[in-house]
Amino acid sequence: ETNANKRNSVHHAHILQRQYTKSLLDMDNAADTVFEVLKDKKKNRVSIPRLFATIEKTGILLTDPRLKECMLKINHYQKAALHNLDTDAKSSSSMLDMDKASFKTAVAENVVFLHRVIKNGFIVPEFTDFCDQIEVIYNICTANHKGSPADYIPQLARFDPNLWGVSICTVDGQRNSIGDTNLPFCIQSMCKPLNY
Question: Mind listing the pLDDT tens digit of every residue in the chain (196 residues)?
Fold first, then answer.
């Protein structure tokens, strides 16, 4: 029975090792795919501004925690390129784009998420069009000045009734805000659908 348990344990360890190796290969393939989609064909480099624009176009913020390691590494890469600027004329362009090896190193920990970004695999695939529609609705509602803040609730009575904003966050973390969205306000009973 002890030998059988040892054999099962060794077999299980081999299965886990194969799964881990496959996972690493899948991540490397994902990094290659992301690089190939984003690279400038002539320079064979990925433009950092293009990477950022691609991410933001899907509604994902550059401050999204799922991109934290990638953003830190890109920032470190750019600082190193800036430091080398005096000694290497190529470094000025290197601040704005990355070769394949540097890119893969930078995105390694977040490559699965970035692969999802370039495949546009989010709940709202046409996020720019969605935001355009929200803006139309926002503008229509901006013209509505009917009603007034509840004066029997002191927290609401203090607010300017002309303040108006809309913020959206999908289940995938796609975000868009328009209007007076950086001002804190009391939502009172509007929290009920959020808490439900």
Answer: 566 665 666 555 555 555 544 555 577 889 999 999 999 999 999 999 999 999 999 999 999 999 999 999 999 999 988 887 766 555 556 679 999 999 999 999 999 999 999 998 999 999 999 999 999 999 999 999 898 888 888 888 888 888 899 999 999 999 999 999 998 877 777 778 777 5
How far is residue 159's CA from residue 42's CA, in Å, rounded to a whole number?
55
161: helix, strand or coil: coil
Q: With the CA atoms of 122, 123, 129 and 134 taken in that order, what torsion angle do they form, in degrees rounded to the nearest 10?
A: -130
Distances from the Cα of 195 to the Cαs of 54, 56, 64, 93, 174, in angstroms?
33, 28, 23, 49, 20
Between CA 59 and CA 66 the distance in angstroms is 13
- Which has the closest alpha carbon to 179: 195, 167, 196? 167
Burial class (CB in 10 A: 0-12, 13-18, 19+), 1: exposed
